[in-house]
From TrEMBL:
Name of the protein described by the UniProt record: DUF302 domain-containing protein
Any Pfam family matching the protein: DUF302
CDD domains cross-referenced by the UniProt entry: DUF302
Residue ranges of every copy of the DUF302 domain listed in the record: 70-130
Transmembrane segments: none
Length: 164
């Protein structure tokens, strides 16, 4: 049995825009493949080139896609009967980026695709992301870290743009 201590760097941006506008901006920047069809196409791809093509078709302008989303606020709102809190967890990524990290550090598959949390608070809408490079740093693999840093840059730019 092994336990690895991981220190996480959390990137956060606060927006004065309405919650719905921030979420819409995020979603407009990433691809939205039909995930059932995407899974079938990637599973039945006979070559890596076919797989790459399927992934590329599913990506948005940021080179990322939305895998799924969870409306965590809906569960909380059911309990209170109020229209708040508003909290959404978006699972976003790119399987080709994940592959590049996982071939050097298999545990990267535990962290990719990544989570972006969007939640409304009294001071604004918070967009939060745990940096992939911080999650992979304990593994000490320079190649995986280079890919992780590039992914962090993509995600952080997406959050800044969506918040502006």
């Amino acid at each position: 049995m092994a336990i690895r201590k991981v220190e996480i760097e959390r990137f956060s941006v606060t927006s004065s825009k309405p919650f719905e506008a921030v979420v819409a901006a995020l979603k407009a920047s990433v691809g939205h493949p039909d995930m059932v069809e995407f899974a079938n196409v990637t599973k039945t791809a006979r070559t890596f080139a076919e797989l790459q093509s399927a992934v590329q078709r599913g990506l948005g302008r940021t080179g990322l896609m939305l895998f799924t989303e969870f409306d965590l606020g809906a569960i909380l709102r059911k309990e209170t009967g109020l229209d708040r809190p508003k909290i959404v967890r978006l699972v976003i990524g790119n399987p080709l980026i994940m592959k590049e990290m996982a071939k050097h550090v298999p545990d990267a598959g535990s962290y990719a695709p990544v989570t972006i949390l969007v939640d409304e608070r009294p001071d604004g809408v918070h967009l939060t992301y745990d940096r992939m490079a911080s999650l992979l740093a304990p593994y000490g693999n320079a190649d995986a870290l280079a890919v992780a840093r590039d992914l962090d840059s993509k995600i952080e730019n997406l959050l800044r743009e969506s918040a502006a």
